[in-house]
Please model this.
Amino acid sequence: MRLLRLYPALLLLATFSASACTLTEVTAAESDDVIIAEIVLRTDDVIQTAYLHRTTGAGMSPSVPGASVVVRDEARGLDMRFAAAPASNCVEPVSQGVTGSCYTFVGDRADINDPVIRPGTRYSLRIVTADGRVLTGVTDVPAKFSMIRPAPEVTPSGVRLSCKLEPGTVFDLTWQQSAGASVYLVEARMPRLREALRAAGTNVEGDDAVELTGLSISAADTTLRFPSELGLFDRFDDSLFPLLLAIRDGLPADVTATVVVAAADRNYVNWVRGGNFNPSGAVRISSIRGDGRGVFGSIVAQGMAISTQTSSTRPPC
Amino acid sequence: MWQSLHTARLRGYVEGMISRLLVLFIAACLMGAARPVRAQTSVEVVVSSRAFALPGASVRLWTLPDSSRSLYATADTSGRAVIAELPAGRYRVRVESPGYAMYERNHVIAAVGVTRIVVALLEEAVELPGLTIQTDRRRVRFEESAGASVTELSQADVKMLPALGEADVLRAIEVLPGVVSTSDFSSSYNVRGGGADQNLILLDGLPIYNPFHLGGLFSVFNADMVNRTELFSGGFPAQYGGRVSSVLNVESQARGAGDGTGLDIQGGVSLLATRVAAGVDLPKALLNGTGLASGRARLSVRRSYFDQLLKPAFEFPYHLTDVQLFSEAVSSNGTRVTMTGYSGRDVLDLAGVDSFPLKVRWQWGNDVIGGTITKPVGGGRVLETRAGYTRFRTDIRFPEFGDTEFSSRIDQALLRAELSGRRSSVSWRTGASADWLSYDNLAQSGGTVFGQGNDSGWMLGTFAQQSLRTGPLLVETGLRVDAWLPKSSGALASLQPRLALKYFAGDSENVAFKLAAGRYAQFAHSLRDEELPLGIDIWVLSGDRAPVTVSDQVQGGIEAYLPKQWYAQVEGYYRLFDGVAANNPAEDPNDLRDDLLRGTGLSYGADVQVRRDGGRVRPMLAVSWLKATREFDDVGVDPNDPPKLRYAPIFDRRLDVDLVVLAMLPREWMLSFRWNVGTGLPYTRPVGSYVVYDYSVLRSRLSGPARGSDTATAVVLGERNAERYPVYHRLDAGVRRTFKKSWGTLTPSFDLLNVYDKRNVLFYFFEYDRSPATRSGVSMFPLLPTIGVEVRF
Model:
């Protein structure tokens, strides 16, 4: 409902802010030093990451070195102690602006039946910084779910999720409900999409891989039309707009998409969707308590491949 | 701590007072019921012009031959004035109404029953706009109304005030005591600490849900069609339900320029829009068989013209259009029939703009239609029946993405009947209503529903109120019962007693002390974030997803009519709100019922008004002192176990002063000034900002700031609304002159808003990612000259 409320208002606000006048008075402002912690646990990865940074302009280095980061499996009573790691383990790409501190926990088991982070389990977080500040949080990992379409395929090397899609057609990605999920994120990476669209006669620029996101809100919404419902947040992007129009009815031939369907918890959703209006910037709802802000969320993900290559031997979508 | 203790004590005091008043109310009802009824003689004067009733006309009777006793009454909306309990005999009857020749003749009042005198006034050219009628109506209300805090504005008042582009009713009421406006950009208003959605806005008795064009910049009311406007800022009687903070009545007029008959045309051009209104007498053929003797209809059309004017330079794909119709007809026995129709649309169509990549069509608007029959039913009683339909809808479409839709609508069909009468010193009114309401809100895109809500149901209401005058004391009692029967949940009902006392002092009874208390309820909320200066109301109805707002209110004060047409009023109030709604930014997508937070509110303050109702120079001073708070769960701290947060809402302007001077100078020159000063409104200061990293599900990592200067930042907020913007002040001035021509009148106008170019703060921007970090901002209206011209013939 918030989008419905805010979109018209923001559009009008933008229009009329232009007609208002800039205040001549510009004064110096002092920022508080607030630590921001971003931890999203994943069930499909043996490496868990915690990225700590600070509010800008507070006269402090944005990094948060020397912190103790501990995530506890509340059911088993096991602690995972994170260690300092290169920033590239937490953030990609690493550019000049990435100045926070990365901490990781690397699990010693790659067993899919006993992952580092277990679906349907509660985890708690405790961070103690070098200057004694304490940040805490709790996340309930959504329950495990299975894909329905494409259907899981048992192969000698394990379960495989992939399918072949006819060019110029769409299909409904469908999965089972994940208890405790607030949203399902669907992200697709298509390295050769621009080239394939140009080959099909659509005028799109660039050669880089295209990454698009789709969304299904609430645990009960377990379908997403592929690929037409992707790119939800890119419809105002000049560079992607023609591309999104071109894939409304399906992908061109010779494209392989790497797709992840992820069930995310409420903490994750609160952090990314934004809170009340403030003219100075986005407001996010923190799931970190104590001496800082941030997110302590969790994700259960399923990866798959969808191809429109005519030579593909994958089962039909 | 002290604040909480103090508030708890006051709350207990008010709740105790409400309980006591309930007992008093029942006792007063019993007193009224037990009062012996004597056989009375009375006179009913029905006042009309050749084409329509003349509400507000003053009726005076003197006994003959010695004029030892004088009696006074004012015509109601049906043009009827009733004076009861008078001895039979000969009387001199005088009837006056501005713009009409005075009627004065002798009549004999019969010894038994009701003597009816039908008076048809003839138009008179000499007219001083809106002076006498205001004085009389205000005086009558002073004498006959115990509880309500009412202020009236005539069309002339509205048109004389300096305005943005063109005269606007909602802008005009900002000068009244108790009314706070939070932004130059919005004609939305707050009354005595109530939310903007707690104001009932009526066009000829029909609710308007979103009475704004251009996101709130100005209202849907075309001043050419408005006869008068009255704002009940508190203590409104039991006949009004559905909102807890105020009632704004906007009455249309069928009468046009000149003598009020035949064809009249009025038009104008302002910086915002062009408009034209035309009035005609209803043809006799149309009235034949209806029992109506005469009637008149008026139609207005208004359209903005920016889109056409700017087309050669650049695309401005926005326009507004509205059409309003009002007609009234009267029968020889005093029956009055009125019809109101309104349809307005704002359209922003970016689908044809090449420079905008995404094709968007966005439109919103109100549609209203309804009619009222006011009919005398004998014994001085009047039956008023009203039927109508009102709706507001908005939708945003993306022609290239059919899976995307943002839409909202609310519909209300209403049927009402009210019976009123007067006997001796008791006047009474009772009524019932049955309304059908429904709403449907939807936001969906990319195959998923971001938010939705819909419901419908019956709203049933009934009320009774009476006013009893005993010596210097006027006692007003009332009881209203509203029941909302939504489809989605069980019935919700609210019992709303009202009690008001007024004590008249002085030989001429020019001074009155008054006290009023009551309970008010409302079953609808707007989701619009009031912290945004512009926006559109998205309505929801009470039920599973939204609470019922109940407000207990006490107000008291003193008002006085002073020599030389001066009037003064001081009034204090204390209001409690339960079931106030606010958006829940941390709503759980799996819980359809947590979209709104339920909270409480408190406001108290005092309003002072001093004005002069007559003369060529009419000053008005309004001083409003307010303290308002709201209390909600603080989901920003912890959505699962939120603490309570009390804060000052955006409209908590502690002191607001309005000084208005209207001057009618020789040779038809009119000058107007408005100076408004208000203490700073609250805002939430960000205490820091941080770089936003988006989490990539594909890469199991955060995405770094990708493009240098495009780095997105988010803010960490400090205590909610703990800071205040600087003091607001602004001087507006207007001048207009009416030129009388052989074909009619021509009135050019020139208004200057913000004469001394005060840069009042609209927003501060805290930019902590700069070095050094800065606080900058944007202002509201700068110095803004506007011109317009109006013609009437």
Summary: Chain B touches chain A through 108 residues (CB under 8 Å).
